[in-house]
C-alpha cells in the first residue's frame, strides 16, 4: 500500500515539474516575442513574475505585454500552488510512512523472545542472517546505514535503524529478552563497545563477536564475548588446508548442516532420545541400527566436547550428541524421535 502511495506522489511531482518548466518556457518566449527582451531579461522577467517577488520591470511594458503578464501571473499562481501542495504532501507522507514502518517493526520486535540480535549488516552480518533464516531462528538486525536497510528490507530480515553502540537501540532490539547477540561490525573498537554494553544489560546471553585484528581477540573475550571469530584467519586457514589436505577439506565442505533435504550432520539433545531419569550409554541407544546414523561427537553439560566418543559413554541429562549420516538417515532419526529438523 505504501509503495502505491509513493508512486502516486512521484507521478504528481513529475507532473508538477513538467508544468513549471512549461510555464517557464512560455514566459521566456512570450517576453522575448512581445517585449523584445533579450533571453536573459526574458528569463529574469519570467522568474520574478512567477515567484511574485515584486522586483521592478526591465523596462515599461506595453499593453500586449501587460495582458500576457496578467495571464502569466494567474497561471503561475495555480501551477506553483499545485507544485507546493504536491511536494508538501509527499514530504509529509514519507514521514508518515517511515513512522508507520518503524512502529510496525518495533511491534514485531517487542513480540520476540529468546531471539538473536545481529549488529551490522555487512558481509558477515548478512551471512549470519541467511543461516538464521535457514534455521528458522527469530532475529533482528541493527543497522545504522539507512540505504542498506532500504536495499535489503524484506519480510524475512527485520531491521532496526540505529547505532548498536547505543544502549537505547539495544533495548529497542529486545536485548533483555534475547539469548544471543552477534556483533558483526567492521570496526573492532565498535564491536568491543557493543560487547561491553550487551554484557552489562544481559549477563546470561551468548555473545559472538567478529574481530579483524588478532590483538582484539583477548580484549573482546575480557569484555564478555563467549566466542570471537576472525574471518580473515579462518579464510586463510581454509585456503591453506585445501593445499595440504584437499580431499579432506572438500569432503567436509560437502557436509551439509543446513538445507531442506540434504542435511548430513545433526545436533541432538539427549533428553529427546530417551527418558533421562535413567542414564543410558551410546551403546544403549543403538542409533546405528535404528537409524543408520553414527555418533561422532558428545558435548557434556560443562560444554566440553569429546570427538568420536566410546560406545560406553554415558549420556548425562543436559548433554548433547552430534550424529553423522546420509540425508535419509538424518530424516529417519528426526522422524523416529520426533525431532524438529534444522530446515
Fold topology:
Blueprint: H1 2-35, H2 39-51, H3 63-110, E1 116-119, H4 123-134, E2 139-143, H5 146-152, E3 159-161, H6 167-172, E4 180-183, H7 188-201, E5 206-210, H8 216-223, E6 227-229, H9 231-244, H10 246-253, E7 265-269, E8 280-281, H11 282-285, H12 287-291, E9 294-299, E10 305-307, E11 314-315, E12 320-324, H13 327-336
Task: Give an overview of the whole structure.
With 343 residues, the chain is α/β, with parallel strands linked by helices. The protein is 53% helix and 14% strand. It has 13 helices and twelve strands. The chain has helices at 2-35, 39-51, 63-110, 123-134, 146-152, 167-172, 188-201, 216-223, 231-244, 246-253, 282-285, 287-291, 327-336; strands at residues 116-119, 139-143, 159-161, 180-183, 206-210, 227-229, 265-269, 280-281, 294-299, 305-307, 314-315, 320-324. The strands form three sheets. The chain has a six-stranded parallel beta sheet, with helices on both faces. The protein has a four-stranded antiparallel beta sheet with strand order 7-12-9-10, with no helix packed on it. A hairpin with a 5-residue loop joins strand 9 (294-299) and strand 10 (305-307). The chain is elongated, with a radius of gyration of 33 Å. The relative contact order is 0.07.
